Amino acid sequence: MSGAFPGPGDDPFPGTGAKRVASWRIRANSADPVRDLDAVHRLGGRFVVPGDIEWPRQLDDLGDTRPLGLWVRGPADLRTWALRSVALVGARACTPYGAHTATDLATGLARQGWVVVSGAAYGIDGAAHRGALAAGGATVAVLACGVDTAYPRGHQQLIDRIAEQGLVVGELPPGSHPTPSRFILRNRLIAALTRGTVVIEARHRSGSLVTARVAARLGRHTMGVPGPVTSGLSAGVHELLRGEATLVSDADEVVELVGAMGQLAPTRRGPVLPRDLLAPAARQVLEAVPAGGPTPATVIARRAGTAPDDTLARLYELHSLGFVQRHGEGWRLTNTATLTSNARRGGT
Length: 348
Hints:
By secondary structure, the chain is α/β, with parallel strands linked by helices. The protein has 14 helices and 12 strands. The chain folds into 2 domains: 31-258, Rossmann fold (3-Layer(aba) Sandwich), CATH 3.40.50; 274-343, Winged helix-like DNA-binding domain superfamily/Winged helix DNA-binding domain (Arc Repressor Mutant, subunit A). Helix content is 42%, strand content 14%. The longest helix is centred in the N-terminal third of the chain and has 16 residues, at 96-111.
């Protein structure tokens, strides 16, 4: 790798400056592949390259930015797991709401047989990994350092447990330490490995937004969990939701997007109230009964737009069901009917 730099016509690193290429040469001269392979083998790991059976082919979508290979620790097959995986990412300094949501999403996905992928950082990442592990599910930690280096150090036990029960993956050789730029590079791997990326709490200019936008460029599903509009930790997510991302609130909604055709989330609806079970004609008369004092049946019929005889028949039907009661010549709502009416209007 010594000698003069190639000319403009035969530049092997288009778009890269001379200083960057020079630094690569220095690092290449100090590289010791045999030492690195020995180090990962001592951990029970391996080095996976394009063409290997275990290589996740979706990483090829990265084109020129595809990694040369991946260092892997753990008993599972990376390619198989990546085929059915979802990334959960978000803020390190998350709120209790964010941590709870990440845990709940990861648990739900794991119970449905999906692999949860994240970056092993504090906050949302850690909550996602723990949620998957707690459900006895599968999880992959993609590191911005060597797979033999626990970062952050406070997650040493978590990363070791993931290596035993799941997979720990990294682009950098053993002994490498994280830098800010390496986190950004790591995020493209998370986006490319998975079927979709869910962002749970992220400020503007968050690295999690980088992951989501890479996912969108690669044609993956991009999702976001909304939060309070007053929270700066949800501002980045809301920005995504105004653009390319889809709003999700639970694992079923995530699977509806990333899963097979027909895996639809259950229909969301409020509770069924007793008055919802009434026939349309009876419900029309009930809605015409004023909330005040007793009202004559003729007035109720006029308000309902129905014949007096039909109205009276419906009133006796509603009386037997406990919705109205008779007072002299008038009719009034019971407490049950008043409460269900308020509940239907949202308590107003």
